[in-house]
Amino acid sequence: MSEPIKVVVTGAAGQIAYSLLYMIARGEVFGKDQSLILHLLDIPPMVGVLDGVCMELADSALPLLHKVFPTTDPAVAFNDVSAAFLVGAMPRREGMERKDLLSANVKIFKAQGAAINQYAKKDVKVLVVGNPANTNALICSHYAPTIPKENFTAMTRLDQNRAKAQIAAKVGVQITDVLNVIIWGNHSSTQFPDVLNGNVKVNGVEKSIFDAVNNKAYLQNEFVETVQKRGAAVISARKMSSAMSAAKAACDHMHDWWNGTQPGNYVSMGVISDGSYGAPKDIIFSFPVEIVNKKWKIVQGLKLDDFANSKLVITGKELLEEKQEAMSVVQD
Ligand SMILES: NC(=O)C1=CN([C@@H]2O[C@H](COP(=O)(O)OP(=O)(O)OC[C@H]3O[C@@H](n4cnc5c(N)ncnc54)[C@H](O)[C@@H]3O)[C@@H](O)[C@H]2O)C=CC1
Ligand SMILES: O=C(O)CCC(=O)C(=O)O
After folding, report:
1. How far does CA 238 lie from the centroid of its chain?
2. Which helix (H) or strand (E) element contains residue 158?
3. Does 108 sit in the ligand 1 pocket, CB within 6 Å?
4. Residue 95 pLDDT more than 80?
């Protein structure tokens, strides 16, 4: 068993954290030999709920879990952490867009960026889940200037998982048979779920998703819209936003960042844009990445047709607008 690492989860009394904490503490992210010290951050009104979560973690008798520190103090929460799941933020309700959360949530990420800068390990891996996730990650990084920008990422893995699930159902295969579906851009209804470079195994034979589905109109319309609007569909059905699937996606994201991706398999992450594929620079944009030794690299040389390019322009433009609005909120 390795020496324990410190991991923080913010919004630890909330609904995503309720599933996420168990998965992390079971070893599903950092490995079955990696012991853990969990730091749980929430706000003062949630202290009672946080106590209940701690009781349940203790009662789960989890061998990898060395200690749990519940706190409302960011200085304690981020102290010496190697990985941070930034979940704590207001979720949207029916009828709202994720960017409607911007003015309330972006201030949280300014404060947490500053705390990460001051207290976390310099190689901390930060995953922002709280919405609007891409822009929150950008603000967080902006206020943590001593930590490399590459260490701040936003979650679009839930969108990738949703897209894979739609394709698996359409073709009639298992989820593991669907490879290299990409989410480009923002975790919002402008995101572009793209199958142009993806493959699917049908009866053991690998073919392009495009050929396997053989329905361009479906792939460019219904499929794209279903994935873009899946979060809203879950809110409409559950009257609360996705939680179990969001927790699973957060684990998938951090697991792959920590452990690496298989050669030839890429995953989607919101990362700082270097302008690849014509995306605007210096925003957090979701790209396909491959990961080796805990470092992600944007996959280059993928094909994009005119339809795809036009979608990337729309989502990039939205992210630039969000960046501008967020900067004006945090500088107030
Ligand atoms: N990127 C993605 O794919 C997804 C993002 N989300 C987003 O994740 C966020 C959390 O969702 P839920 O857990 O369902 O919400 P929730 O409302 O159940 O829990 C949020 C928790 O964050 C806490 N919190 C608020 N401000 C805080 C602060 N400054 N520091 C620490 N904790 C704070 C709240 O007290 C609450 O306990 C929302 O913004 C939601 O929209 C949800 C699903 C998917
Ligand atoms: O759509 C929302 O705002 C809820 C959470 C979310 O981001 C999602 O389910 O994708």
Report:
1. 21
2. helix 157-171
3. yes
4. no
The tokens for 290 are 């491959």
Mean of all residue pLDDT scores within the chain: 96
Q: Helix (H) and strand (E) counts for the chain?
A: 12, 14
Q: Is 2-154 in CATH node 3.20.20.210?
A: no
Q: What is the CATH number of domain 157-321?
A: 3.90.110.10
Q: pLDDT band at residue 102, thresholds of 50, 70 and 90? A: confident
Contact between 311 and 227 under an 8 Å Cβ cutoff? The reply is no
What does the alpha-carbon distance between residue 88 and residue 131 come to, in Å, rounded to a whole number? 9
- In whole angstroms, give the CA distance from residue 120 to residue 117: 6
List residues with catalytic annotation: 187
Q: Return residue ranges of the chain for CATH 3.90.110.10.
A: 157-321
Burial class (CB in 10 A: 0-12, 13-18, 19+), 174: exposed
Which atom in ligand 2 lies closest to the alpha carbon of residue 241?
4
In the chain, which residues fall in CATH 3.40.50.720?
2-154
Helix/strand/coil for 166 = helix
Among the bound ligands, name the one nearest to the CA of residue 15.
Answer: 1
What is the pTM assigned to this prediction? 0.97
CB distance 41 to ligand 1 below 6 Å: yes
Return the best residue to mutate from 8, 9, 16 for the ligand 1 pocket (most ligand atoms within 8 A of CB): 16
Q: Whose CA is nearest to atom 44 of ligand 1?
A: 246
- Closest by CA position to 21, among listed 244, 235, 238: 244
Q: Is the CB of 241 under 6 A from ligand 2?
A: yes
Q: What does the pLDDT average to over 181-193?
A: 97
What distance in angstroms lies between residue 278's CA and the mean position of ligand 1's atoms?
32
In order, the DSSP letters of 13-41 are: TSHHHHHHHHHHHTTTTT-TTEEEEEEEE
